[in-house]
Amino acid sequence: MSKRSGVVVGRPSEADMPQEEISAGQKMLSAVSGSILTSLIVAPLDVVRVRLQSQSVSTAPPISRTSSFLPSASFTNVPNLGVTACCREVFWVSNNAQYCMASNSGESAFTAITAATHTGSPSAASCAVEETQRKAFTSTFDGLQKIARNEGARSLWRGLSPTLLMSVPGNVIYFAGYDTLRYNKQSPIRNFIPNEYAPLIAGSVARVSAAAVISPIEMFRTRLQATSGISTGVFRDTLLGLRDMVRVQGFTSLWRGLTLTMWRDVPFSGFYWWGYEAVRDKLTDLRETSRGRTMDSPLEKSRVRSESRTRGNHTATFLDSFVAGATSGAISSVVTTPFDVGKTRQQVFVHANDFSSTSNSGQGSKAPYASSTGSAARELMPEERSMPRFLYHIFKTEGVSGLFKGWAARCLKVAPACAIMISSYEMGKKMARDVNEKSKDSNNL
């Protein structure tokens, strides 16, 4: 490899070949159409992924039986045991709380279930177990079934509004930014990075820009999807929770999850674009070789690839981008699943503590986990550590399976999402290119 006039000269690429100009507006329109279609199709899988990864997180301290007769206001931090319906059916108590209260005196769910078991009332205990199992998912398909059956099919699209609000501007910045960094003649990545690594760098930089813009919406969506139940006030409660967080911690707290998002999305984007271009180049080479075209030199191979992408038919463009997007997306999603698990658990943990702190602030109580010597003296919870330390904690306590929890749901969501999004985007660009060519030809007449 040599340098000529400050430019890295490596293997000739399609980035160096002339291409028909596509306006920024046309790229944005292509990204918007792909974003809407992708969000509608893969939203249920995203809901299941978030539930699978966050269901084992417990942010409340253990409850002792001695607290059974505390006033009802003391139950702010009691975890959702999933037995509220059981209370209404077995104990005939008009109870709309998020946790079971067996009587108006404030008897706790643990005491009620234990008493029912020891007094020979199996219906209460079995009902409690059944209600708890109703919210525990063992697989992606199990999660889809239980959410649809117990919360309604519409709950599978919970968070669709913020997803659309996030994906449309995010993908416009992401895809248009990648094209600019990859193919613009003034791009430093095109001019100074070898072509073999340009997709890796361009994809990572484009993702950083997009993530910084959509981070507040990403936090809201994750919290909304992690909430189970059929209450119609989930959207409003989540929004109010964010408002309270901003009031207490400042406007910049909306970007608190940005570092977590970077841990997951930047490696994924780099691997994805690197794999996408490699797979698509291979598919193009195989198709052109089968047609009898020779590509002996790197320059000839680059020219044929560029011509295939700009002049090829719509079917070839769709198939190449769809297969390459699905393949690269699946591999990249599996490789980066540990970062996704860590991000989801830490965001859900912070959400639970924000809720508890807000509730306690009105009662003059301490935040959960705060010791008598102050929050500065307490030991950090695993979820409050840095991402590498937290992932190591998951590995020690749950093994490799804990790091890859929800990998199937993530892969089933990401692979088709990448395939649909990139093929829609490439098809949109190709149609825009065809329109520009026809317009240019008509002007020349």
Q: What does this protein structure show overall?
A:
It is a single chain. With 445 residues, the chain is an all-alpha fold. It is 67% helix and 1% strand. The chain has 15 helices and 2 strands. The chain has a two-stranded antiparallel ribbon with strand order 1-2. It is elongated, with a radius of gyration of 26 Å. The model is unreliable at 1-12, 14-18, 57-120 and 361-376 (pLDDT under 50).
List the helices and strands and how they pair.
Layout: E1 2-4, E2 7-9, H1 24-54, H2 84-90, H3 109-118, H4 122-134, H5 140-151, H6 160-183, H7 188-192, H8 198-226, H9 234-249, H10 258-290, H11 298-311, H12 314-335, H13 337-361, H14 387-403, H15 407-444
Antiparallel strand pairs: 1-2
Helix pairs in contact: 1-5, 1-6, 1-15, 2-4, 3-4, 6-8, 8-10, 8-13, 10-11, 10-12, 10-13, 12-15, 13-14
Extract low-pLDDT stretches: 1-12, 14-18, 57-120, 361-376
Principal-axis shape equals elongated
Question: What is the residue-averaged pLDDT?
Answer: 74
| Alpha-beta classification | mainly alpha
How do the strands of the widest beta sheet line up side by side? 1-2
Per DSSP, the total helix count is 15
Query: End-to-end distance, in Å?
Result: 45 Å
Residues in helix, %: 55-70%
Biggest sheet descriptor: 2 strands, antiparallel
- The Cα radius of gyration reads 26 Å
Beta strand count: 2
β-sheet strand percentage: under 5%
One letter per element, helices H and strands E, the order comes to: EEHHHHHHHHHHHHHHH
